[in-house]
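Friendly challenge for the regulars: who can give me the structure tokens for this chain first? No prize, just bragging rights.
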Amino acid sequence: MNILDVKDLCKTYIVNGRQNNILKNVNFNISEGEMVAIMGPSGSGKSTLLYSASGMDNVTSGKVKFGDKNIAKMREKELSDLRLDEMGFIFQQMYMLKNLTVVDNIILPAVQSKKNKESHKKILQRGHDLMRKLGIIEIADNDINEVSGGQLQRACICRSMINNPKIIFADEPTGALNHTSSNEVMIELTKLNNNGTTIMLVTHDVKVAAKCTRIMYFVDGNIKGEYNLGRCENDSQKRERERTLNNWLMEMGW
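First reply, four minutes later:
Bragging rights claimed.
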């Protein structure tokens, strides 16, 4: 079953009186449980696609169906509630409120959700449980400037999961991390996906994309090609998947 259906999606900006077509009649779908990577050269429209497909950005025309809802036609308040309750977001820049502790940042979406009727104690317990799963429970009460980049990005993953989203949208989630932290974050995202969470992510990193089930190559505002890697069953497949993907990307003009 498809969780996301995108049809004839267009996004146009007017800059200095000139029309700039960023997305040009884009069509794709994502099935429940997939982990899809969007790759392509800088400036091709990858992040715009992610934000448009998630309702973070308004579209010029086309349909974006999330389940049975056409989010391209929803009012801002409806979109805001949908994003809060049913979607999770992870960004390259790890946006957190500086006046809150790490765990308070993590549970904030659950506290704000009108759909969530849990007590604050129960929400806090779930926040701690998520931190424990991702191996960062020891920083729960720290300020955000007291932790490493890798720890903070794992905290962002916890925050994205606090409302049990149907899908996570991630824009270069490892782009600001070193190799070790990047690998740790991808291990956690892969675990989430293996447990059923659908993930759509933008990345420039072949090692990151090789952990995904499918790759869409984006050029000049549209999808030039798709490659289905399938699910990675064990670590022994990692190098072969990276080699295969790298060869395909070269064919695409990477």
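Helices lie at 46-53, 76-86, 102-112, 120-133, 149-161, 179-194, 206-209, 238-252. Residues 179-194 form the longest helix (16 residues). Your move, everyone else.
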